[in-house]
Design a protein that fits this description.
The structure is a homodimer. By secondary structure, the first copy, chain A, is an alpha+beta fold. Chain A contains 2 helices and 3 strands, in the order E-H-E-H-E. Helices cover about 35% and strands about 35% of the residues of chain A.
Chain lengths: ~80, ~80
């Protein structure tokens, strides 16, 4: 079972890395780029457990280790 | 127009950050995690251009600035 976890900064949190890339794209003459935000993509392969159990574990993992709930949001998507 | 760009390391490239997270998850007793790979999620908002033009610009941006084609793959997904 494979799952993609998307971790993004909350909207209220400044994103200096995104701003830097935005600036660089402007300098490269991509004038119609309006905003850039950078997040993380975490691809996790899970062994032999039920989908329910996997969902439960995933939520725990995200809260305990993979994200910082104070400044980040996450969502995930089963790949297969 | 919003687009999500997913940048991942090629399969043949070692991912020490992913390995570190895999190790940490094991120590937290998530024994059925088989693999972890870390990538980047780049959310880009584009202004008023046609979809064709946007596609062309996106591919250019990815090759020139957003990814390292030697070690990374990318794909993207239109959000709206």
């Amino acid at each position: 079972m494979k799952v993609n976890i998307f971790v993004t900064l909350k909207d209220s949190i400044a994103d200096p890395q995104g701003n830097a890339i935005h600036g660089a794209l402007k300098q490269l003459d991509y004038k119609n780029v309006e905003d850039v935000r950078i997040g993380k993509l975490i691809e996790v392969v899970l062994g032999d457990i039920s989908k329910e159990e996997a969902e439960k574990q995933l939520q725990e993992m995200c809260k305990k280790l993979l994200t910082n709930p104070v400044i980040e949001n996450y969502r995930y998507e089963w790949v297969d």
